[in-house]
Amino acid sequence: xxxxxxxxxxxxxxxxxxxxxxxxxxxxxxxxxxxxxxxxxxxxxxxxxxxxxxxxxxxxxxxxxxxxxxxxxxxxxxxxxxxxxxxxxxxxxxxxxxxxxxxxxxxxxxxxxxxxxxxxxxxxxxxxxxxxxxxxxxxxxxxxxxxxxxxxxxxxxxxxxxxxxxxxxxxxxxxxxxxxxxxxxxxxxxxx
Length: 192
Fold this sequence. Notes:
Elements: H1 8-22, H2 29-51, H3 64-85, H4 94-118, H5 126-139, H6 141-159, H7 167-190
């Protein structure tokens, strides 16, 4: 049986880790240490995505912390390079550049810990899969509600004729049920 393919977003994160590690060649110790933290963060983000593939484009937004970590990682390399080059130090002191890069890197452990907490390693179990599926439905409640309202509108127009199709009553009930379920899902999502 062939090995499952690595999802593209995981491959991209791992590639960024390798590219970041390569950027440390010949770099000062301070810069190399920062970039090694960035590479480690990219690898951890890839590991988190691998542990729960349902995070990718999750309708509930559970991947936001991973997106934030990737954006912070992306911002660190140019700051490190700028600090090393030291251009325009009169407008932006070199030590400030280092401090900015270090402050960004210091945020990564907490952000990745939050991302790990969002991961559902039980995604492939019956209970975990059902819970994630329900969460996705709840976060799509507005779209489901709109579908029910759209069906109501279509039925109302057809019902206005002098001799409507007998199926209209069935579709009307279905529209009401869709709207009611969407409202129930919305309550689950918002808590009221």
